[in-house]
Write a structure and sequence with these properties.
Helix content is 52%, strand content 15%. By secondary structure, the protein is an alpha+beta fold. The chain folds into 2 domains: 12-109; 115-259, 2-Layer Sandwich (Alpha-D-Glucose-1,6-Bisphosphate, Chain A, domain 4), CATH 3.30.530. Strands 1, 2, 3, 4, 5 and 6 form a 6-stranded antiparallel beta sheet that branches. Strand 5 (208-217) and strand 6 form a beta hairpin. It is elongated, with a radius of gyration of 26 Å. The N and C termini lie far apart (78 Å).
Length: 260
């Protein structure tokens, strides 16, 4: 029969397992706070990217390593407290490393551009949004030919949307679609000029991207066209976010058309 002291020893959580979980929790917290801390103005973006994100990966690796060492050296069965604690540390470590690795991989898959427009030759121009971008590191100039060529190569499907209807109905449809989008705020909608401007705030780091929608009559009578431009306020690249936003909006316009 097992003595009481031996039972207590079996129930006691291993230091290796406990350390694994602590490092895993620390890694997850550092990862989350790297973005939210920037969004809450606790530190600059450079601190988040240069120090905190790498730190979260290092902490995750340590937690993962400690958990694996325990698993190989002191495994006590799947139901012991130490095993569950070590498993938690290992899972947290893997989750943090997978998250950082995923975004690093995504950053390599997209061109280093942050300004996407359905009309490259004559992009819609911001008006009401301009004062809100006073502190933005990126201006509203579309860019040079090299950036235009990069957009054509990587986002050939981002094109002007043509509607089989007159301008007034097309503008109303464009505005209704904008209202259905999960954007932060529609800043202005000017039917006379055919412009709708809005901005969207991304979760985690809280990056703000601006959107301008231009509705105009098409070359063919009875038709209208919608052009959309989405621009990041900071950052050289956007990991495809702006192109994705334009696609979602134009798809919403099409869905709205089908509903009526």
């Amino acid at each position: 029969m097992m003595k009481q002291g031996e039972t207590m020893k079996e129930d006691r959580i291993s230091r290796w397992a406990l350390a694994s979980m602590i490092f895993g929790i620390a890694a997850a917290l550092v990862l989350l706070l790297s973005g939210y801390g920037y969004q809450w103005n606790w530190w600059e973006l450079g601190v988040a990217f240069t120090w905190l994100l790498p730190a979260s990966s290092v902490l995750a690796l340590i937690g993962l390593a400690l958990g694996l060492v325990y698993a190989f050296a002191r495994w006590k069965g799947s139901t012991s407290p130490s095993t569950r604690t070590a498993a938690a540390g290992v899972m947290l470590g893997i989750a943090v490393l997978a998250t950082v690795g995923y975004w690093f991989y995504q950053a390599q898959q997209y061109p280093p551009i942050h300004d996407i427009s359905t009309d490259i030759d004559n992009p819609p121009r911001f008006q009401a949004i301009v004062p809100l971008r006073a502190e933005a590191s990126n201006d509203t100039t579309y860019g040079d030919q090299e950036k235009a060529d990069a957009q054509r190569e990587h986002y050939p499907d981002v094109q002007t949307l043509y509607l089989e209807e007159e301008y007034p109905e097309a503008f109303d449809r464009a505005l209704e679609a904008a209202r259905q989008m999960p954007w932060e705020q529609i800043v202005t909608s000017d039917k006379e000029q055919g412009l709708i401007e809005a901005f969207d705030k991304l979760p985690w780091f809280g990056f703000i991207d601006d959107v301008v929608i231009r509705v105009d009559t098409a070359e063919t009578r009875g038709k209208s066209k919608i052009d959309v431009r989405s621009v990041s306020r900071i950052g050289r690249g956007d990991i495809g976010v702006n192109a994705h936003r334009i696609r979602e909006y134009l798809e919403t316009v099409r869905d709205t058309e089908e509903m009526e």
